[in-house]
Design brief:
2 strands, 6 helices, rod-shaped, disordered N terminus, about 180 residues
Length: about 180
């Protein structure tokens, strides 16, 4: 009787050695899960399940190991409380960025107010080159407040004409760079 079984096995189709890709659909995953559960329950042998699923025996054992890992991972204790997701972390970081930008703008405004109250010149920013229609870059003209121009001219005239009383009054003179020398 043993010879008959061995002859029957040798004449039947051998189990394919080709590995199959992971389950593509839920129904295929359910079919794999059912076959693995049948083997674990003792209703089917691993080679029988591999043949039923049209996969190799080593591939069946790989799938069975993955299924058991998934079962253990699903039964592991979970952390209490709300878990942070990537989306919630992204929203939190965006809120922090907005708060930091508001704080930066507030600090810059405080610096400007302090500089004005002390009569200090604001820090010079490097001019940004602009491109004209012909492709050449051109420096932007720094806007000048008329009151500051007039104050600079008055101070320049006061220092230049301290000994000369018949100076031209409020006639404009060459502007000095910055307000570093301006005393309130």
């Amino acid at each position: 009787m043993k010879k008959a079984k061995s002859l029957a096995r040798s004449t039947s189709q051998p189990v394919r050695r080709q590995t199959s890709p992971p389950a593509q659909t839920l129904s295929e995953a359910q079919r794999l899960a059912a076959a693995i559960l049948e083997v674990l329950a003792g209703l089917r042998s691993p080679p029988g399940a591999a043949e039923l699923l049209s996969i190799s025996l080593p591939r069946y054992y790989q799938l069975e190991a993955r299924a058991l890992e998934g079962l253990v991972a699903a039964l592991a204790p979970r952390q209490k409380g709300k878990q942070s997701s990537l989306e919630s972390r992204l929203k939190q970081l965006e809120k922090e960025l907005e708060a930091a930008l508001r704080q930066c703008a507030r600090q810059e405004a405080l610096v400007r107010v302090t500089q004005r109250s002390l009569g200090l010149a604001p820090l010079a920013k490097p001019p940004a080159p602009t491109v004209t229609g012909n492709g050449k870059s051109r420096r932007r003209r720094k806007p000048m407040v008329r009151a500051l121009k007039a104050a600079r001219n008055l101070r320049a005239q006061a220092t230049a004409g301290a000994g000369n009383s018949d100076s031209a009054g409020l006639q404009p003179t060459a502007p000095t760079e910055g307000l570093e020398g301006v005393q309130p």
